[in-house]
Amino acid sequence: MKWFGIVFIVLGFGIALYLWSDKDKLSDQELQTLKTQIHQALNEENGELYDKLASKLYRHATGDEMPNRPGDFFDPEEVISKNECKFERLMVDVWPVPLDRIFQDTYRYVALKAYHLREYAKDAPGIEDHIFIKLEKFILGCTKDLNGPHSKLMQEAIDWIGSWETASADWIFDQVLFYRKQEKNKETIFLEKELSAVALEKEHPQAIYEDIQRRFELNNRPRVSTGMYNLVKLATSGYLPAQLDIAQRYLYGEIFELDYAKAAFWYKKAIANGAEGEARKALTPLLASLKATDYFRLKYWENRNEFPRK
User: Fold this and answer.
1) pLDDT for position 5
2) pLDDT per residue over 259-287, tens digit each?
3) Cβ(185)–Cβ(71) under 8 Å?
C-alpha cells in the first residue's frame, strides 16, 4: 500500500505538470478560429484586439508570454532562444499582404548588421556564430518551406543592401530621405546613418553639403578645414545651396574670413544659377558698398572666368 501511495502521488504530479505545460495549447479547431480572428483584426487595423489574440497564439506556439518589443528593444538573442519561428510559421496564412512596413526595417537592420560583420570581420574566428548572422539565417529559413512572407522579406532585405553598390547616388539619397521621415527608433536611425554614408561615398551633393555642416558644427580645426575646402569645391561645381551658404559666410565672416568681394562673387553666381529673393536683396547693397579694390578683384575673377581661392 505504501508503494501504491507513492506511485499514485508521482503519477498525479506528472499529470498535473503535463496539464500545466499544455494549458496554452489549442485544438486544431480553436487554432483555426483564432487565426481567422487575427486576420480580421489585422484587416480592420484593430491593434488592441490583434495584440490580445496574437499573444494567445504566441503562447500556443512557444509556451511563453509574447514580449512587448518596440524597435529600440529588439533583442536577437531572445528571438532565437524562444524560437519565435514557431509563431511566425503559424502566422503564414494570417498576415495580410503587404507586410513591408511591419517587418521591413527590422529585417533590413538585421541584414545590414550581418553584412558589416561579414565584410569587415570575415577572417575573425567564429564570425558565423555571431548573433546577427545567426539571426539572419534563422529568419531566412523560418518560413521558406511554406513560401512564407518572413523568409521573403529577409531575402529582400539582403538583396536591397546588395543593390547599393551599383545604385545611383540619387537613389541612395532618396532612401536617406525616406528614413528621415519615418518614426525614429534604433532601426530607422541606423539605416538612415548607413545610407547617408553611402550617399557621401557616391558624392551626392546634398550628402556632401550635410557633411560639411556637421563638420562646421563640431568646430574641430581639421574637420572645419576639410569642410571649408569641400564647401568651396561644392559651390564651384554649381550646387546652389553651397553657393548661397559660402556667400553668406564671406559676408558675415562666419568660418570664412570676412571678404565682401568674394561674398558678392558667390551671390552673383547663385543668382545666375536661379537664386532669387534673399540673394538679390543681399547683393544690391553689397555691390553699392564695395571699395574700389574689392570691385576690381570681383571684376578680375569675372573677366577671367575664374573662381576666387579660399
Assistant:
1) 47
2) 999 999 999 999 999 998 889 999 999 99
3) yes
Contact, 169 vs 113, CB < 8 A? no
State the Cα angle at 103 between 119 and 155, rounded to 5°.
Answer: 45
The model carries a pTM of 0.80
Asked if pLDDT for residue 12 goes beyond 50, the answer is no
DSSP secondary structure of 90-113:
HTTTT--S--HHHHHHHHHHHHHH
Nearest CA-CA partner of 265 in 236, 229, 301? 301
Which residues, 6 or more positions from 149, have their beta carbon under 8 angstroms from its beta carbon?
A: 92, 95, 97, 99, 103, 143
CA angle, residues 158, 163, 169, in degrees to nearest 5: 135
Rounded CA separation 114/120 (Å) = 10
Phi, psi of 286 (to 5 degrees): -65, -45
Half-sphere exposure of 100 (CA within 13 A, CB side): 3
Angstrom CA distances, 193 to 109, 173, 177, 198, stand at 12, 11, 11, 9
How many CB atoms lie under 10 A from the CB of residue 241?
16
Of 286, 259, 256, the residue nearest 271 (C-alpha):
286
Buried b (16+ CB within 10 A) or exposed e, 201-237: ebebbbbbbbbbeebbeeeeeebbeebbebbbebbee
Exposure letters 110-125 (e unless 16+ CB within 10 A, then b): bbbbbbebeeeeeeee
Q: What is the spatial distance between Cα 111 and Cα 140, in angstroms, rounded to a whole number? A: 10
Contact 242, 267 (CB under 8 A): no
